[in-house]
Amino acid sequence: MISYSKNDCAPQPPMGWNSYDYYNTLVNEEQVRANADYMAKNLKEFGWEYIVIDIQWSDANAGTKNKDGIQYIPFSRFCVDEFSRQIPAPNRFPSSANGAGFKPLADYIHSLGLKFGIHIMRGIPRFAAHEHMAIKTHDNSKVTADQIACAYSTCAWNPDMYGVDFKAKYAQDYYDSIFELYAQWGVDFVKVDDICRHVKEPIYEKEVEMMAAAIQKSGRPIVLSLSPGPAVIEKAHHYKTFANMWRITDDFWDDWKLLKAMFERCEVWQTHSGEGNWPDCDMLPMGKLGYGWAPADAEHKGWDCKFTFEETKTMLTLWNIFRAPLMIGTDLPQLSPENLKLLTNPEIIAMNKCPNQAYQTSNSSQDDIVMWVNEIDENSYYQCYFNLSEEPQTIKLNIDISDKNNIRDLWEQKDLGSAIQFTMEPHSSKAFKISF
Predict the structure, then answer these.
(1) Would you say 107 and 32 are in contact if contact means Cβ atoms under 8 Å apart?
(2) What CA–CA distance (Å, rounded) separates 211 from 231?
(3) For the purposes of burial, counting CB atoms within 10 Å of the CB of 11, is it exposed (0-12), middle (13-18) or buried (19 or more)?
(4) Spatial separation of the C-alpha atoms in residues 107 and 120, rounded to whole Å
(5) Mind listing the pLDDT tens digit for each residue in 21-79?
(6) pTM for the whole structure
(7) Cβ atoms within 10 A of the Cβ of 421, count?
(8) 3 state SS of 314
(9) Which residues lie below 8 Å from residue 264, measured CB to CB, with a gap of 6+?
(10) Cβ within 8 Å of residue 227, ≥6 positions away
């Protein structure tokens, strides 16, 4: 078995793409490959590397009920193997047929120099428990899903799973078996849903611990991402001990109210990032969104991101200075040149990779202007301004006059000297590197 530290899995905030914001439950292999090809060609050199397939990839019928407004199919019989483990639906992921699972797709993504991730729901399939299907055990004991399932632990919004009863003798075996399978496939990242916000309750907390132990036993470094939020600040130590990422928000979408609220969330969590632990602000919605939410017979599928250009920059500036994981939520091949330029600014991305902790210097619930700072070294630091108000704001920035002192605009990639004055439009931001 390979020995590694949990923190080795994500020494810096993971950067990649997730299928959910555009495809919802509908994504297929052809679309995943197209997004991977785009990332390899246009984004990889700037640090973007994860390709993550979100929810319902094992359901052959996912999306067929969209025209009726149903996102998750009640009592759906999705694809599982002989040990009650979800496997890809071959009608959507053809390379997974004949027991291959996600390995062929993961191999392709790895061949591009990228990493592969999947979404799972906490627990074990309900129908596997109802039908007393087998699970894999370390001692080949004949154990069935109902013997480890907790029928009283269910998700409020997805009908697929029962929680796993941590008190059951073979509970750990089930999680060991699924992560063993993911390691065989070549999975690098697992997003676990219906678990983060409930971690105060023992069954959720223990399931996180079982997953972390299973990853270690698998012998493969796998990023463990917990969702959805909001995460519980009182459990920060637990998240940091067992996971790499945890959502500090519920699903984040293209709404200014949600973006403004993120400043308070980041302020609460600002001292808990670093060393393989990353509070997660959720995906970066931009470009085309919501194709998978449109009725099957709709003339217009999806929508254009409702953020203005300046709001998109504000989102990216906050995520980067806060050092949040960066997961793009869109269809990458449809990305506009303007958005691609925002995502490939190396000086903005460098803030995300800074080894030091950033901090907010003003009150996001009271002040019109919020400022974040991160020290780079003894001679330089990052300083970002955000106008959260509905009015333009003028700011003077002055550092000691010296030939060596400099204010650099990171979005414009320009040196501005040692004293500047600028006006910020509503919802806009400025990012500077100050050297002296």
Answers:
(1) no
(2) 18
(3) middle
(4) 20
(5) 999 999 999 999 999 999 999 999 999 999 999 999 999 998 665 556 678 988 889 99
(6) 0.96
(7) 9
(8) helix
(9) 364, 365
(10) 191, 192, 193, 194, 195, 196, 246, 247, 280
